[in-house]
Structures are given as structure tokens and as C-alpha cells.
């Protein structure tokens, strides 16, 4: 079977902060319709990769390509149109405190500028409730405000918002962190279903190796802003790569400093 074409490609991305290279010539690709998991110790650059793809952080050098187009070369309006194809979940969810849960989930559906995509408030609320139920939250949650949610509930609301518009590309930062094992399985199944039904491309940062095994087709291992291994998920544990071996087996000895592993 031929390899899927790259939906997203990072080509030699470098980014420094105060003289420190947070990304150091990093290159990786996310195949269309598949999930790429990013793993690695704390501070290795995983979340910064997601922000670079979104254009929230501009690289000092290198290119971010979506469907072969360099995002940095696009005019502001074109870049905004490209970003409307993304669904995003960051670790802190970024929910709007002043809006009830259903409006948070349906925010893009209510405000979508694309022809034929915008929903009226009644239809958007119903869609939000449907998506909330898919992440294990009942209809009563729709009228709560973010301040009334537990951490796990807020995580699921954030995920519901990320997938409500059925985006082409989904970026997830620790989507199952803080969830119990049953709900983790529910969320993993939801991510897999999204890829199956609409062909979504997923890039997910995760420290949950069981979840990585369930949702991803390929894995990229990062350390110090570089990709030290990328390959099929099925070969991860027999890769022979010392970084991968140390990380997935939670070993103290290896190329990753134990101070990094302590907060990974």
C-alpha cells in the first residue's frame, strides 16, 4: 500500500527564545487521514510544534506546509481561511468564561464565515448537545459555565469544541490527561471514529502510551527540539532507538536526563 501524502509537514523548523533553541531544525510529517502522536519529555518542543502549525509562533527558519502550501507565505485572509479547517485542544482548554458550555462548543458553528456553514443558535445548541453526549457529558451540562466544571469535564468540553465542526485537521495537546481509564477509552474511540468518518488528520501530543497505541498510525519522539525517531506506531517498542526505549519503559538510564522525565 502506498504511503498517504503528507497533510502537514514541518521542514527544518528552528525557533529560539532568549538564545535557547526550543526547536532545532525539526522536521516531521503528518499523513492525510491518519494520526501522528508526538511523545517526549517535558520541554522537548511538543506543544510548540502545535503552535507552529497554527501560526501562533513563527519559526526563525524552516517551513510549515499544509497541503503543500507554506503557511507563512499566505496573506492574512488566506491564512485565516486555512485555520478554519482546524480543530484544536490545548491543555488549558481556553474556554470562554462568559459563555455557557453549549456556546463554547458551538462557537465556530455560530460564527463560521464560510458559505453555508454558519448555524442559527437553536441548531447550533442542538449540535453542541449531540457532541457533548459523544464525549460523555449529558445535555444538562450545556447550560453550565466553565467555572462550574471539574477539570475532567472542562477537558471533554474542550475536545467537544475541537471536533464540533468536523474539521479536516485536529491538533490535540494531551487529550486524555486527567481522565479515568473508561473515559480515556471513550475519547480514544471518538478520535478514531473522526478519522474514519471524515478522513480527519490528527496530530496529538500524549504522555499516555496506551492511548498512543490505540489512536495513532505513527509516532514522532522529540527531545531538545529535535525529532530523534519517527516511524509506525506498530514498530515503536522494537525500534531499537535509545530515546524511545528509555521513554516508553520509563527508565532512569539513557540519553534523556532524569530531570526531564520527572515532569514529562
As a whole number of angstroms, the C-alpha radius of gyration is 18 Å
Span from first to last CA?
35 Å
Percent of sequence in beta strands = 15-25%
Tell me the structural class. alpha/beta
Count of distinct strands = 10
Low-confidence stretches: none
Total count of helical runs of at least 4 residues: 10
Gross geometry: globular
Spatial sequence of strands, sheet with the most strands: 6-7-8-3-9-10
Question: What is the helix content?
Answer: 25-40%
Listing every helix as H and every strand as E from the N terminus to the C terminus, the arrangement reads EEEHEEHEHHHHEHEHEEHH
> Can you summarize the main beta sheet?
6 strands, mixed
**Overall mean pLDDT score?**
90
Topology, element by element:
Layout lengths: L5 E12 L2 E12 L3 E5 L6 H9 L6 E6 L2 E2 L5 H8 L2 E4 L11 H5 L1 H5 L9 H14 L16 H13 L5 E5 L7 H18 L2 E5 L3 H7 L2 E6 L2 E7 L9 H7 L9 H4 L3
Parallel strand pairs: 3-8, 3-9, 6-7, 7-8
Antiparallel strand pairs: 1-2, 1-4, 4-5, 9-10
Task: Write up this protein.
Helix 5 (121-134) crosses helix 6 (151-163). This protein is 34% helix and 24% strand. The protein has helices spanning 46-54, 76-83, 101-105, 107-111, 121-134, 151-163, 181-198, 209-215, 242-248, 258-261; strands at 6-17, 20-31, 35-39, 61-66, 69-70, 86-89, 169-173, 201-205, 218-223, 226-232. The strands form two sheets. The chain has a six-stranded mixed β-sheet with strand order 6-7-8-3-9-10, with helices on both faces. Strands 2-1-4-5 form a four-stranded antiparallel β-sheet, covered by helices on one side. The chain has 264 residues and is of the alpha/beta class. The mean pLDDT is 90. It has ten helices and ten strands.
Amino acid at each position: 500500500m502506498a504511503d498517504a501524502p503528507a497533510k502537514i509537514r514541518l521542514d527544518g523548523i528552528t525557533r529560539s527564545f532568549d538564545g535557547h533553541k526550543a526547536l532545532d531544525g525539526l522536521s516531521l510529517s503528518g499523513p492525510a487521514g491518519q494520526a501522528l502522536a508526538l511523545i517526549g519529555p517535558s520541554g522537548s518542543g511538543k506543544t510548540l510544534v502545535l503552535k507552529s502549525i497554527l501560526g501562533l509562533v513563527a519559526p526563525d527558519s524552516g517551513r510549515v506546509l499544509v497541503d503543500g502550501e507554506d503557511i507563512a507565505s499566505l496573506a492574512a485572509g488566506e491564512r485565516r481561511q486555512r485555520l478554519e479547517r482546524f480543530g484544536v485542544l490545548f491543555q488549558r482548554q481556553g474556554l470562554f468564561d462568559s459563555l455557557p458550555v453549549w456556546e463554547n462548543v458551538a462557537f465556530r458553528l455560530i460564527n463560521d464565515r464560510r458559505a453555508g456553514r454558519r448555524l442559527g443558535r437553536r441548531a447550533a445548541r442542538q449540535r453542541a448537545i449531540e457532541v457533548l453526549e459523544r464525549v460523555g457529558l449529558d445535555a444538562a451540562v450545556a447550560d453550565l459555565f466553565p467555572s462550574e466544571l471539574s477539570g475532567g469535564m472542562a477537558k471533554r468540553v474542550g475536545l467537544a469544541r475541537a471536533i464540533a465542526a468536523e474539521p479536516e485537521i485536529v491538533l490535540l495537546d494531551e487529550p486524555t490527561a486527567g481522565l479515568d481509564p473508561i473515559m480515556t477509552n471513550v475519547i480514544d474511540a471518538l478520535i478514531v471514529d473522526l478519522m474514519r468518518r471524515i478522513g480527519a488528520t490528527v496530530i496529538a501530543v500524549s504522555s499516555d502510551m496506551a492511548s498512543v497505541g490505540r489512536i495513532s498510525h505513527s509516532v514522532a519522539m522529540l527531545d531538545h527540539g529535535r525529532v530523534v525517531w519517527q516511524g509506525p506506531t506498530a514498530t515503536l517498542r522494537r525500534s531499537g532507538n535509545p530515546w524511545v526505549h528509555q521513554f516508553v519503559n520509563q527508565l532512569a538510564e539513557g540519553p534523556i536526563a532524569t530531570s526531564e522525565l520527572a515532569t514529562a
